[in-house]
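RETRY 2/3 - previous attempt timed out on the joint model. Re-submitting the same 802-residue input unchanged.
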Amino acid sequence: MKLKGWKEVTPGCVITEAGSAVQFKTGSWRSLKPVFIEENCIQCLFCWLYCPDMAIKVKDGKRAEFDYDYCKGCGICAVECPGKKGNKAIIMVEEGK
Amino acid sequence: MPKGLTLKELSKKEIMFSSGHRMCAGCGAPTIVKMVLLGSNYPVVAANATGCLEVSSCISDYTAWKIPWIHNAFENAAATLSGVETMYRSLKKQGKINDEIKFIAFGGDGGTYDIGFQSLSGAMERGHDMLYICYDNGAYMNTGIQRSSATPYGADTTTRPAGSVVPGKTEQRKNLTKIMAAHNIPYAAQASPSHWMDLLKKVQKALAIKGPKFMNVISSCNRGWRSRTDDAIQLTRLGVETCYWPLYEIENGVTKITFKPKEKKSIGDFLKPQGRFKHLFKPENEWILRKIQEDIDREWERLQKEEACFAS
Amino acid sequence: MAKVVAVTGNEAVANALRQVNPDVCAVYPITPQTEMMQRFASFISNDLVKTEIILVESEHSSLSACVGASAAGGRVITATSSQGLALMFEILFIASGTRLPIVMPVVNRALSAPINIHGDHSDAMSARDAGWIQLWSENGQEAYDNAIQAFRIAEHMDVRLPVMICMDGFIVSHSIERLEYLEDEEVKNFVGEFKQLNPLLDIEHPVSYGPLILTDYYMEFRKAQDEVNTKVPQIVLDVAEDFAKMSGRKYGLFETYRLDDAEIGLVILNSAAGTSKDVIDEFRDKGIKAGLLKPRLYRPFPYREVGEALKHLKAVCVLDRADAFGSSFGPVYLDIATSLYPYKEKPVLINKIYGLGGRDYLPGHAETVLNELVEIAGTGIPGSLKEYIGVRE
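RETRY 2/3 succeeded.
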């Protein structure tokens, strides 16, 4: 991304584009990657709630896909997932595998 | 169940804090911010003290905040927000603004218990209509895990490391929640992201009250706590279940415990997964573990007595 | 229709602020400013202004609250002196770096230690690099006039910088003098409506104030701020021109007194300039070509204009009512020396430190200095370059 010159910066460093952080893809930080096992999901939405990076999307009240552009692979979702009958709906695998 | 407080309902709301922020993987703070903002049914304007949350959520051209937000300096989030809130009242009185806006300040324990204490006390005393959220991870984490007055007794930090003659922090934590309640503000509470409904109810209750409100929220830091990256929520849950971080509220001076663990766990359960306490498990430091348990038991007893006092 | 009154400097500035009628005011007491904000607080209590008050718990919080209120989107004021200004030091830079048009009268008082409540310039001088526009005032009338003009300068869309209006503690703030007030309507029309820029309270357009800026951008922001400062002198002159049309009183970047054909001159700020002008007249009566330059816009300093005004003199003494505590030269001396440096032919320049901690500056002092300048003008050789006057040996 081309850096701005002094004539182009905003007065007082005020950022006028809300939520512009989405341009910064933190997905590259991962070393572990979460994988969704849909048949074990009870749609509790805990993973959506506890994800620190808003990397789990929910559509019409149902859990949708991981947003791998931002997921940092922290694994909180996998720990918090209650799963079905002891089988988790999220497991962490090594990135790149 | 209060209206709108199901995860399904909440998931339909826009989260006013975006992805792409640069807090560590597994940090407790962004989840707290997410929950607090989800808890508001009104537009929010926020102020933030310098610290991990501020520095990682707003860099150069990138801001994760989808609400108006101001960072001023380290110790003045409360003073800054009191200025914003006063301007709001002034412009509203003049008929220049009609919107209903809520004002929320975020500060870490460093910027709230220590350097920000004066400005917080002043803002609460003056009665500004604002909610101050302290995300308490028990140290100055952004500068590399230095001791604050919120650091738990016995914890290893870089400015009070556990060494051969000093066993980590040698002072008790400050009870900021009670200090804030002593300002006679209408609402002070402790919450944890692990008990999300309790947290959200408290946020909603606070925002419905006109006047100064304070909420102290336990926030995991896997760097400073030397814990697993995926343990953030589980550790705060243990903090609550061991009564290290009791969940209570003090509304107009009346104490109410909002969560009583079915089985109060021993403090070792909370301390063991954290590397900052690992030296406490050496035999020569057994007395410290005992003292920590005694202090927690005593505080929990006192809290229950306070509650009983008002219930009768 | 101007109203002639006999009031103290504090009262006059408080009245100016009443006429401007800002949206928010942060108040914290410190001698000798206290009375100004007390008067303003009584205007609030008696519904004479629409201002909302914030009775902060320290000056650090007063400027912090002003930053919040200004960013929220409205007209904001506070006032302070000495230790209060020193306490809000870090926020001064934040206010100017964030480009917020806060207006703050500073009633100049000496800095501790030792603690002293009387007038000298060490407080505002120690803040001269904080990026604030500084307007200095000789007397109550100038303080009143500067306070009104400050809003137009600060809020100008090409500027958007905070302004401090300096006036001598006790000497001006507490002494009664005859001055002229403008009509409330005139002042109201002169300052106009506050124009918002990226207000926090505009929830339709959320903005973020105070990002972390790393090595890749900090310098660009500083350069941009530096550039804005180059526009300030012309805007100060434009506002002064408008003010003159309304009041009949003319202001520039500085005041020159009998300087055009002078051979020796004094450079001096604030109230002591008034004392010195009388002595200049006496010397002129004796046939000695003496003159005086009194800076008004001190930051950004108009180096080129000041240099042009002084370059023809043979000997100049810069009198400072503040010293650099580390035994450098007085702050005004350093700026005057810089303004004269580009010229091959320039006056001999000496520095005298006077009036610290409220020590009186008397006509006799000005006489002694001017006599010394007469000698230096003759020989071209100064005695000591820096001296404290009025101090007991």
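Chain C touches chain B at residues 23-24, 26, 50-58, 60-61, 64-74, 76, 90-91, 94, 200-203, 206-214, 216-217 (CB under 8 Å). Closing ticket.
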